[in-house]
């Protein structure tokens, strides 16, 4: 896994119970995704110029332990599967002070033709970048369930 984001659970990101609100987890994971994709030569800021975009089609978040206001956070990310048109990636949100796993996201993103507005094949340059970031065999689900690493779909 590579470091993809750092943040703070500022009070204004928390709900009335004093812990990070649900939408803000996804914002943090989205920031990490941008950095992961940049590490794979798939930065949306660059690929959009060639007509290639990226569209998330699946998110599975597991909330492991409470994130209280003021917590220092870091996210590490990895690619877990590269298909023909999609990439599945895992993100772990951890407490920066004690490394406690706070939440994890398993996401699937498809290569998206911005003209045709449809899924398309991942170009070779980006495919090679994603494959270079494939993590060692681990379960696909953040809950610990098994699954394949690399497939054609």
UniProtKB/TrEMBL annotation:
<dbReference type="InterPro" id="IPR050563">
    <property type="entry name" value="4-hydroxybenzoyl-CoA_TE"/>
</dbReference>
<dbReference type="GO" id="GO:0047617">
    <property type="term" value="F:fatty acyl-CoA hydrolase activity"/>
</dbReference>
<dbReference type="Pfam" id="PF13279">
    <property type="entry name" value="4HBT_2"/>
</dbReference>
<dbReference type="InterPro" id="IPR029069">
    <property type="entry name" value="HotDog_dom_sf"/>
</dbReference>
<protein>
    <submittedName>
        <fullName>4-hydroxybenzoyl-CoA thioesterase</fullName>
    </submittedName>
</protein>
């Amino acid at each position: 896994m590579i470091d993809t984001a750092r943040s703070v659970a500022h009070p204004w990101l928390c709900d009335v119970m004093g812990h990070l609100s649900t939408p803000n987890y996804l914002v943090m994971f989205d920031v990490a995704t941008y950095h992961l994709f940049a590490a794979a030569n798939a930065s949306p800021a660059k690929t959009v110029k060639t007509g290639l975009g990226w569209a998330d089609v699946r998110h599975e978040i597991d909330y492991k332990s409470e994130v209280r206001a003021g917590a220092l956070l870091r996210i590490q990310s990895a690619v877990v599967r590269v298909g023909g048109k999609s990439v599945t990636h895992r993100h772990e949100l951890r407490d920066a002070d004690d490394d406690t796993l706070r939440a994890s996201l398993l996401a699937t993103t498809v290569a998206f033709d911005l003209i045709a507005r449809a899924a398309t094949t991942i170009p070779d340059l980006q495919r090679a970048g994603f494959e270079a970031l494939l993590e060692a065999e681990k379960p696909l689900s953040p809950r610990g369930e098994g699954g394949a690493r690399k497939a054609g779909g």
